[in-house]
Every structure is written in C-alpha cells, then in structure tokens.
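Section: Multi-chain targets

For targets with more than one molecule, the full set of components is provided together so that the structure can be written out for the assembly as a whole rather than chain by chain. Components appear in the order listed by the source. The example entry contains two components.
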Amino acid sequence: MQIITLGPKGTFSHEAVTRYDSQAEIIFKPTVWDVFEGVTSNQTSFGMVPIENSVTGSVGFTLDALLHFDLRIKEETVLPIKHNLAGKGNLDTIKTVYAHPQTHAQCKNFLRTRLPKSEIIDTSSNAKSAELLSQQKDLEHAAIIPNIAAQIYNLPLLEKNIQDHKFNVTRFILIGKEDSPKTGRDKTSMIVYPVADRPGILCDMLEEFKKRNINLTKIESRPSGKLGDYLFYIDYEGHREDEWVVEALKKIESHSAFLKILGSYPKRC
Amino acid sequence: MQIITLGPKGTFSHEAVTRYDSQAEIIFKPTVWDVFEGVTSNQTSFGMVPIENSVTGSVGFTLDALLHFDLRIKEETVLPIKHNLAGKGNLDTIKTVYAHPQTHAQCKNFLRTRLPKSEIIDTSSNAKSAELLSQQKDLEHAAIIPNIAAQIYNLPLLEKNIQDHKFNVTRFILIGKEDSPKTGRDKTSMIVYPVADRPGILCDMLEEFKKRNINLTKIESRPSGKLGDYLFYIDYEGHREDEWVVEALKKIESHSAFLKILGSYPKRC
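Its structure, encoded as tokens over all components, is:
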C-alpha cells in the first residue's frame, strides 16, 4: 500500500502511517494540501493526515481540504502523542533544547520544573529538532522528539513521555477516492451550510438526529470564508447507507444550502 | 495601558495590539499559556491572544487556557492577516524564501505560480523569517512576513497581500480579570459540559436559545481530555445580564455538569 503523508521523515504523521500499515510505502509532502492534491491527481491512492488532537483541537488545514477536494474519509486511526527528551548528556548537563513551538507548549511543565535554566530553541518541525540534535556531539544539547524520529536519527532518549497532558492523542484519517462499506459500527462525517442564519436553524437540524436516536460524536462551526458566517462539521454514529441516517439526511438537506458527505468508515474511537 | 501578547516582536499578535491601542506598553511572551499566567499573576492587567482565524479555524491553546484560567474576555478585535514578500532583489533573482510553515501553506498558490523554482526554508515564526532575512545582504533571499515585521526590521516589500485567501482575518481577544458592561450590542462566550452523552443533549440545550430568539455566533465541540468526550464552546448574541440570556442559561445549567461563562463583550464581528 502506498500512502502520502506529512513529512519530513520522523513526524507524528510518519509514525501514524507506520502504525497503520508497517509495510506501507510512504511519500512525504510538506503540507496537508499537497497530500490531498497527490491523492486527487492519482499520484497514489491514499493519504493520511491529522484531523484532531485531544489537547490542541482540530487541524484547520485538514478541515479546509476536506471541503475543497472531492475525496472521502476511508478510515480513522488514533495515535498516542508521546514527546521524549533526547540527548547525549543528562538533565544536569543540558543547556539548550530544540523544540517545535507546539511541542514546547505541550511540555511546558516538564521544561519549567526539570530544565528551568535551559534555553529553548524553536524549530519548524519535530523532525527538524531531531535533525539539529543529530548534528551535535556534546552533552549540552537536547531535543524534544517523537519515538520515530529518535529511531531514524538514532538518538538516545533521556526521558520518555514528557508531555504535560499524559492523555494526548491525535486522530488521523485515511483519505481516498471512496469511503468504506457498512460494518455495523460506523461513523459518518459531513459538512453542512444552513439555508439561513436565523436563531434555531442548527437546533432544527440536530433535532433530526435526536428523533432517530443518532449520537453526535463531534460538531464544529467553522468560518465559511468570513468570520460570523459558518459551516458546520458534524460527525455521528451510523453509516450513510443506514436507513435512519438516510432519513435524517433527507430532512437536514431541506434546511441546507450545501451538504457534503465526507464519508462513512468504521468507528475506532 | 500595558498588554501582554505573543512574541517575539513582529508577530501578528504584536500587530493586533498596536492596532487596538497604538500607545500600549507591550510585554512579549512565548506562548498563550504564559500570557494567561501573566495576567492571572497580576504581572499586568490585560493580555491579547488570537482565538480564531478565518482560514485555519480556532486556536486550540487559547480555548484550553480559557477553560483552565479564571479570566474573562473583555473585548474582541479583528485583524486582517496580510502576508507580504520581502527582499532586496526581485522575483527573478530570488532563490530562497524564509517562511513559517503555516504562512507557507497560506501562500501556496503565490509561491507555486510566481516563485516556482525557489527553495522554501521553514522558520519557527513570522518574526523569525524577518530576522533571518535581515541578516542577508544579497538579492537571492526573501521572506514572507507581516507588515509590522517589515517595519521593525526595515525590510523592503516586493509584493503585498500574497496570501491565497484574500479574505483572511484573525479574531483576537483581550483578556482580563473582568468582562465588559452591557452596551446593547454584545456577545457572550461560554463553555458547557453536558450531564450525559446521550443523543439529543446538545439539541436540548440549543433549544433554549432558539425559544428566546438568541442567535448563536459560534459552536465548537472540543475533546474534554479524551477524544469522543466533548466540551462545547458556544458564543451567542446578547449580554449575560440580559434577561432572556439569564433565563436561557438557567435552563441550560440543568442539562450541564459544568458551565463556565467566559465573558460578555461588545460585538465587533
């Protein structure tokens, strides 16, 4: 299986792909948009991108790409996000730590309590932090990196799992030209743009799910291009071919100026 | 007025503060969390942070900090996000462009069509892109930077407003110990955690707004710590002291395990 994902080598996206399919042949792209373009232009059949992190929330670029491109969500997969301190020295010898700004923010308590005097140097990706550390031979430099980057650059880990929120996971989606067949335990994702910005329009749409006992698993309003004018991204339990889902969608369509089914796929979380 | 915001000098946050109050004395902090801590510990009375971008969506760190800290939203302000190409050469001489990865993604079409052969070097912030360019004297280097960074580093702009989405704005919030008094044209922000994960619970809560003709301006579900278990961030028109808002909130509280009012403030968008 060939899968396009976010590079460079050593990112969490890379880790998510290897966990999903350890034999996958991987093509790296610099942005989410490039991954969607690669699949659309048949460079390969599948792409994997992050869509939501339990600490930082949705990945805006992925939500935008799902709106723009005519691709489907085929699978979801969840990766535990584990940040590790790598280096050749120890906590007493470290003076400089390479870290991506988001990673820095996710390991703030650790850095403050265990390395209060060290200087943090911002990097452009977790993979870059590993690469920069790999160029240093001394005991003074360290980096905060994913497991897969430690393996690729052969870097010793001084402390594992140093992120502040011990429960920190990212949900990735596998995108392709088609979604997945019914399994009996599915989720469906869609984008809806209501016909009118009037009080209660969202409520009226959700009512159709409630009537049919369909559980929502996620809802997010997202600026449609200007702030204050919103699209809704809604995930719910059930397959788009389930009878009760078909009925609910027919009703919701009558409240919508635009409705796009992003796909049905087996529920993994 | 003293305001803490995200540094270093030359970020869009810096630009938002100077637009909001051109006389403000500014303190720079590396992360959103630090801004909230600074205001909480009385280092200064106000902080300004981004909460939502029209292209990339919500700023997760800000939503988390609003949940964690006991501070209020006092104001909202909207900044147009304008990316500019800076450099000493021209489009024919440029071989290398410094750009923050998010900025790179937001200017993709421009880079592809106008600078197809140039190498993009990732940086850790837009301000850093400006700093790196300022250290180069040749015609080969360029950077994509905000207006304010061009002013600070005295860098010539080759092309203005090069972002792909011409409508690209970020909403910032001013946080403090208290929110704002009623003006008659207000918004209120809150976080709700429903009592039970059952089909229809969100619908029942939104019904209370619908009954009273209260217009929602934003809704977002956000993992409460694990994926699949959600808090709701809801913005709506009206002040928390308006009679109909007080009534709606009383009803919604009966469906909630947790309800936090983040503040009422004049509606600017």
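Chain A has nine helices and 15 strands.
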